[in-house]
Amino acid sequence: MMQADHQLQSKVLFLALLLLLMSFTCFLLFPDNYFRLQKQRLPHNAYVPQQVHISLGRDVSEMIVMWVTQHKTDTVVQYGKVSGELSLSVEGHDPVFYTFDPYVSGVIHTAVITGLQPSTTYYYKCGGLSGWSEEFSFTTAPKVGTFEVVIGTVGDMGTHSSSRRLAEVIKLHPELQMFWHVGDLSYADGKQPIWDVFGNMMQSVIASLPYMPLAGNHENANIERSFSPFALRYNMPLLTSYTGGDPERYYYSFDFGSVHFVNLDSEHDYAVGSAQYRWLETNLKAVDRKLTPWLVVGWHRPWYNSNWVHQGEAEKMRVALEELLYAHKVDLCVTGHVHAYERSHPVYKQEITPDGPVHITIGTGGTPEGLVNSWMRRPNWSVVRDASDWGFGRLQTFNATHAQWDFFHNDETIADSFMLVRQRPAH
Predict the structure, then answer these.
(1) Average per-residue pLDDT in the chain?
(2) Closest-CA residue to 399 (of 146, 179, 151)
(3) Distance of alpha carbon 413 from alpha carbon 392, whole angstroms
(4) Which domains does the chain have, with CATH numbers?
């Protein structure tokens, strides 16, 4: 009997040591997020949707709805124009999942609502018989050509307390109609559970605001399949045809009211003659500036950066693409990557040029890597530099020639504000 008791005690001790070792290993793998991950596991009901978010479809009549469940279940969205009366429904595509041993993602669902009216509020919930989400609402994109649209934007978020605060600040701005993220979303860096933390953190914002992200360097999983976790979780229009497959490219464009947005990819080939360059040239030529007079381009790594951090990293991209953007009268360029805020004068080839685009760096989303205040001697093209607080940007168009830009700190103060005036008439 004593020998049996001793064997039992040895087994209990072994299991306790094993659990301690597993916890310590998790802490070593992602110390910044370990405790938050422990508090934000998947819902107890494995069929209840989480990480719900929406994105604009291929035109104003579509809205993409995506969510995650722990186990495979129905992919259905119920919706309608009256809260609580969701009489319309649409079934989604076959859900997908991915693995990065030992991680297995939840089941990723995608459904596309079609036949929507512009500038109209709809209510919806997603899931199926095994479990439904709470009810959310969204307002569809305005008819193309509509003025007075309001867009929020930021780069470089992560799941830090400062990025959580920023998400709360964004919710204090009901005037926002769309949220544009210029790269570095979750800072998972190959640690896949952090994607789940980020998705749940942002649900209260992007389940109602159409979310249009582009890829930054931290979307790279640092493994063979590279950017595929980002692509599978954030299925952008025209990239994967909503099938969840690996996209051939990470650049795309969309219209929102009077603005034509172009999301470029600074992480893959952009050289003159590359597939991305040819696509960009064709895309810019096709813009109808009478319908969408504002032309706004985003990518991740800034061309105009007077911070010592990441200095000169995007010079090859600038040399390859700047002439093309200038020739097509781009109004505004927005980037992230540098964890600070900076705004330029209208600039072209590193010189102040009245009809050049304004460049804004807004890597102020709350990244756990911290703000960077390592400024060089100020170049003549640099107007405002700020690394005192996190924050987001707001772009509002009034008509074909005037738009307002504001940069809000996390304490809700406006740290920068200016009127963007188009210098050249639309062709």
Answers:
(1) 88
(2) 146
(3) 11
(4) 50-139 (2.60.40.380), 150-421 (3.60.21.10)
How many residues appear in the chain?
Answer: 427
Parallel/antiparallel/unpaired status of strands 150-154 and 391-397? antiparallel
Cα separation of 247 and 227, whole Å?
9
By mean pLDDT, which of 38-42, 371-375, 392-396 is the weakest? 38-42
Residue that is written with structure tokens 């009489």 in the block: 87
Read off the DSSP letter of residue 41.
P
Q: Is the dihedral of CA 34, 200, 167, 239 positive or negative?
A: positive
Instruction: Answer for the pair 383, 344: CB distance below 8 angstroms, yes or no.
Output: yes
Residues 140-160 have pLDDT tens digits of: 999 999 999 999 999 999 999
Q: Which is catalytic among the residues 6, 310, 328, 427?
A: 310
- CA–CA dist 118, 140 (Å, integer): 5
Angstrom distances, CA of residue 382 to CA of 110, 280, 314, 350, 367: 42, 27, 17, 10, 24
Dig out the tokens for 204 from the structure: 């209260």
Annotation marks residue 310 as catalytic: yes
CB 83 within 8 A of CB 71: no
Tokens 């789940």 belong to residue: 196
Got the DSSP string for 345-388? Answer: EEEETTEE-TTSPEEEEE--S--TT-----B-SPPTTEEEEE-S
- Whether pLDDT at 53 is above 60: yes
